[in-house]
Amino acid sequence: ALHFDWAGARRRVRMASFDMRQEVDSWNECLAMTSGETNAVCEIFVCGTKKVTLSALTSLICHEALHNLARRTRQGNPFLSEDTEHVGMALLGDPQLVHMVD
User: Fold this and answer.
1) For residue 67, which phi and psi values (nearest 5 degrees)?
2) Which of 32, 8, 22 is nearest to 94 (CA)?
3) d(CA 79, CA 73)
4) Beta strand pairing call for 32-35 and 43-47
5) Following DSSP, what letter does each residue of 35-67 receive, concatenated?
6) Please, which residues have CB within 8 angstroms of residue 11's CB and are 6 or more apart in sequence?
């Protein structure tokens, strides 16, 4: 069984921030990421030095908010792997990942 932490996802979206000085990442391989000391307290960061459209920014933030949304209810590690999350996102139609289901 899974629990969906919608409140946590909304919090990550509200608290999302731009990394204008490359303090979080060099942004050579992505435009946004979820990062934090643990999955339970992660935050969304977006590259603040590359131009993206509003539509792309919306897609990036929505994608990152889906990370750590679904959690196992059984004992042990409640978090799904990033690969498993990405398969689920692709099946839901995430425009960044739809190529995975082809």
Assistant:
1) -65, 135
2) 32
3) 9
4) antiparallel
5) E-SSGGG-EEEEESSS---HHHHHHHHHHHHHT
6) none
b/e per residue, 71-86, with b = 16+ CB within 10 A?
Answer: beeeeeebbbeeeebb
Beta bridge partners of 86: none
pLDDT by residue (tens digit) across 62-83? 999 999 999 999 999 999 999 9
CB contact at 8 A, 42 and 36: yes
**The one-letter amino acid at 33:** M
Mean predicted confidence (pLDDT) in 50-63: 95
Six token digits for residue 2: 């899974």
| pLDDT of res. 95 | 82
Q: Determine contact, residues 80/72, Cβ cutoff 8 Å.
A: yes
Q: What is the rounded distance in angstroms from the CA atom of residue 45 to the CA atom of residue 60?
A: 10
Q: Is pLDDT of 101 > 60? A: no
Question: Confidence band (pLDDT; 50, 70, 90) for 97?
Answer: confident
